[in-house]
């Protein structure tokens, strides 16, 4: 998934498919014009890449020229088609083939048909790499079509979203707002915090760190915070219901989130079920559980180093560190099985540079 301006886009048409579409158009035009020298009138800016690759694929003599019209701003056609670069005299008496990147409503084509109706040309044809039949409401038939696509906004291979995305080699489609809710697992030192920051920024998610939520509620003396504290002061465990209600507040306070990262919760199967129940009441669900895996010995080394740098005492004692790992293994193993049974568990290798681990996580989340 990629981000352009404020929107997210996901892969839609591969380089190979684009190439095949261009080959198809090239072969069809070549069959019709092998004894002629057509002039490809390319509609700027979007069709520049298509024109370039089509010319390279075209087996017979041909020429190129350019026009520039403008009708799109943002995600939908404004309906105003302006001519920014006029057709030159070189098209007079020639077989003209318009090259468009995409035909949507057909307004641009209508304008071009109108422009060319005042020019003496030998023939006038239209070739478009992409065509949205559901959106087209023109009368003019499109002579050569590379690929029909559903009525979706796309970018890449010359096409833009407010001028960005033209350089992408493949075509991406706008991602409809869909939630991504993740649970993040990882032993101390596995890099959970760092990676949560990345996921948060890259996918526009809200990171719910249960420890932070607890501390916030207690510090600010919220009703739930005071309730939790009353149990803790007695040396009792805070009931799951109290924690779940705190998390529910976090979810409710972020209605515009693209999704949530749950971190530090659930820690038991009962909590995992309670979380599923909570999300179900909001028409939401956990989509994936990401478990950052790393061998204990490597993590011990990392933590000892961190302990030296930060002065955190719990990171300076190997025995204490290994106890935390044992506790994690005991408590988390059944949870990993719980999510594995739902086919939601993704183990991610947590050894490597931050960037390498980020890439691994990204490739998992991108396929959700
Ligand atoms: P039409 O005039 O509505 O047919 O739109 C044609 C022009 O709008 C194309 O030349 C593109 O520049 C632009 N356009 C249409 N659909 C898309 C899209 O999905 N992504 C990016 N640009 C588009
Ligand atoms: Mg265009």
Describe the structure.
This protein is of the alpha/beta class. The protein folds into two domains: 2-174, Rossmann fold, CATH 3.40.50.2020; 182-365, P-loop containing nucleotide triphosphate hydrolases (Rossmann fold, 3-Layer(aba) Sandwich). The protein has eleven helices and 15 strands. The strands form three sheets. It has a six-stranded mixed β-sheet with strand order 5-4-3-6-7-8, sandwiched between helices. Strands 12-13-11-14-15 form a five-stranded parallel β-sheet, sandwiched between helices. Helix 6 runs antiparallel to helix 7 (240-252). The model has no long low-confidence stretch (mean pLDDT 91). The site of magnesium ion has 3 residues, from loops.
Ranges where pLDDT stays below 50 over 5 or more residues in a row are: none
Query: How would you sum up the major sheet?
Result: 6 strands, mixed
Classification by helices and strands: alpha/beta
Beta strand count = 15
- Looking across the biggest beta sheet, what order are the strands in? 5-4-3-6-7-8
Total discrete domains: 2
Order of helices and strands: EEHEHEEEHEEEEEHEHHHEHEHHEH
> For the terminal residues, how far apart are their CA atoms?
11 Å
| Mean pLDDT over the full residue set | 91
Distinct ligand kinds: inosinic acid, magnesium ion
CATH architecture of the largest domain: 3-Layer(aba) Sandwich
CATH class of the largest domain: Alpha Beta
CATH-assigned fold name of the largest domain? Rossmann fold
Q: How would you describe the shape? A: elongated
Give the assembly state of these chains: single chain
Q: Helix amount, in percent?
A: 40-55%
Q: How big is the Rg?
A: 29 Å
**CATH superfamily of the largest domain, please?**
P-loop containing nucleotide triphosphate hydrolases
Strand content: 15-25%
How many alpha or pi helices?
11
């Amino acid at each position: 998934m990629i981000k352009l301006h404020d929107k997210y886009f996901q892969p839609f048409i591969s380089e190979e498919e684009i190439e095949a579409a261009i080959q198809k158009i090239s072969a069809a035009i070549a069959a019709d014009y092998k004894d002629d020298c057509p002039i490809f009138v390319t509609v700027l800016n979007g069709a520049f890449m298509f024109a370039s690759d089509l010319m390279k694929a075209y087996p017979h003599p041909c020429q190129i020229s350019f026009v520039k019209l403008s009708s799109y701003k943002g995600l939908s056609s404004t309906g105003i088609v302006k001519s920014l670069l006029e057709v030159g005299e070189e098209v007079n008496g020639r077989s003209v083939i318009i090259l468009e990147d995409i035909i949507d409503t057909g307004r641009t084509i209508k304008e071009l048909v109108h422009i060319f109706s005042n020019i003496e040309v030998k023939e006038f044809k239209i070739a478009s790499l992409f065509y949205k039949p559901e959106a087209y409401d023109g009368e003019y038939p499109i002579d050569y079509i590379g690929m029909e696509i559903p009525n979706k906004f796309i970018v890449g291979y010359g096409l833009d979203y407010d001028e960005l995305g033209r350089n992408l080699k493949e075509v991406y489609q706008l991602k409809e707002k869909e939630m991504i809710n993740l649970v993040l697992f990882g032993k101390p030192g596995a890099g959970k915090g760092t990676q949560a920051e990345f996921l948060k920024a890259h996918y526009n998610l809200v990171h719910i760190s249960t420890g932070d939520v607890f501390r916030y509620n207690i510090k600010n003396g919220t009703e739930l915070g005071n309730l939790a504290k009353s149990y803790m002061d007695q040396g009792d465990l805070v009931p799951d219901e109290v924690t779940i209600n705190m998390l529910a507040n976090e979810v409710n306070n972020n209605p515009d989130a693209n999704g949530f990262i749950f971190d530090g919760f659930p820690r038991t199967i009962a909590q995992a079920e309670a979380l599923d129940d909570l999300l179900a009441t909001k028409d939401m669900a956990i989509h994936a559980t990401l478990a950052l895996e790393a061998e204990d010995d490597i993590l011990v080394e990392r933590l000892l180093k961190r302990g030296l740098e930060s002065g955190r005492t719990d990171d300076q004692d190997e025995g204490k560190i290994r106890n935390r790992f044992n506790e994690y293994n005991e408590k988390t193993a059944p949870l990993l099985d719980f999510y594995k049974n739902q086919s939601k568990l993704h183990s991610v290798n947590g050894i490597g540079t931050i960037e390498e681990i980020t890439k691994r996580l990204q490739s998992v989340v991108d396929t959700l």
